[in-house]
Amino acid sequence: xxxxxxxxxxxxxxxxxxxxxxxxxxxxxxxxxxxxxxxxxxxxxxxxxxxxxxxxxxxxxxxxxxxxxxxxxxxxxxxxxxxxxxxxxxxxxxxxxxxxxxxxxxxxxxxxxxxxxxx
Length: 119
Description:
Layout: H1 2-15, H2 22-34, H3 38-51, H4 57-69, H5 76-85, H6 96-104, H7 106-112
Helix pairs in contact: 2-3, 2-4, 3-4, 4-5
């Protein structure tokens, strides 16, 4: 009985904790990156996809930047997903010209991520 009450109390306390904001996630990831903990930084930024209500271009850009800078190729696929997730409606949309320029390089990203054979 005491265990059940403890569990219910813990759940109610956990429910009152607000999820981290975009700025908090970005700052925490940057701290981890500066400490050389690249995998952990990527995990923090990836968590934003499930905890934020709106897409985050800043998290997507930080993720793909770090993954490519450190040549963490197993993160390229999620990096591409994170990057383009940041352009979803409901957030900021770039002008059509820069977006068209970015989409031109999309086949190269898909090839790097192993989604298609290189052309």
